[in-house]
Model the fold of this input.
Amino acid sequence: MTRVAFIGLGVMGGAMLRNLVRAGFDVAGYDLSPAARQRLSDVACRLAASPADAATGADVLITMLPTSAHVRAALFGADGAADVLARGAIVVEMSTGDAAETDRIGEDLAALGLRFIDAPVGRTPREAAEGRALLMVGAAEEDLVSVRPVFEAMADTIVHVGPRGSGIRLKLVNNYMSMVGMVLTGEALMFAAKLGLPRDTAVQVLSNTTAGRGQLLTNFPRKVLAGDVSADFPLRMGFKDINLAMNLAASVGAPLGLGGYAREMFALARSWGREEQDCTAMLLLLEDMARVPHEAPAAGADAGGA
Done:
């Protein structure tokens, strides 16, 4: 498949379209914004007058738009792309949209004889421009095989998460973690500033501790994800430490909203019989509360503890 329609030519979409053209694909692009289209005037692609115009003759149609409502309008609205696509063509939805609406869009396309993949994008616009995006793909295996050459022109990491709808769900988990991390990082640096600590020093230290490097890259893989919750640092001590930090914050008037929630979670460890387990057992505590079954350690992982 060599004919690609690309709808949504913003910072990410425009960069990805450039990579498709560079890889030799026959690409037609469309965006509501004249400025977005103008930015691609130097690219050897056809700039279409509507979604339907872009989709005419396309084997693969990609949407990269702000919301699911924009995607639906581009596919099914006036001059929508879905009406002109040949049966069996593949629609790839790469936006970060609503998961339930993404499912409905897939179902509506299937009713028209069209195949559907959700493949939201990870990493930054700079990495997308360099062809090093990460794609989280929800697709039937055979559909992924069909579009893999297209994906490889835009990304160096293609993760097949599972069936249709899986990609957007993992992307939303990722963005949840990212956005909460924004608040956490802001709170920590504000707290340091409120205490009169030099910012450069705080950034230097936090960048070289587990706190700054992130639990998912440090403690979780070798402890709870490996099936080991023997205490390197027990939840009981975590509760003590967050209490000390929150008391200090209160004494200087530093608002730590995430800290309040985290303290309540650590406090629950005793009631759930986990206070002597490693702090990474917070995952198991939250799974207990959500009634999510605990997963077995990955094959080959070191398993120790309870």
Remarks:
- The mean pLDDT is 95.
- The longest strand covers residues 155-162.
- The radius of gyration is 24 Å.
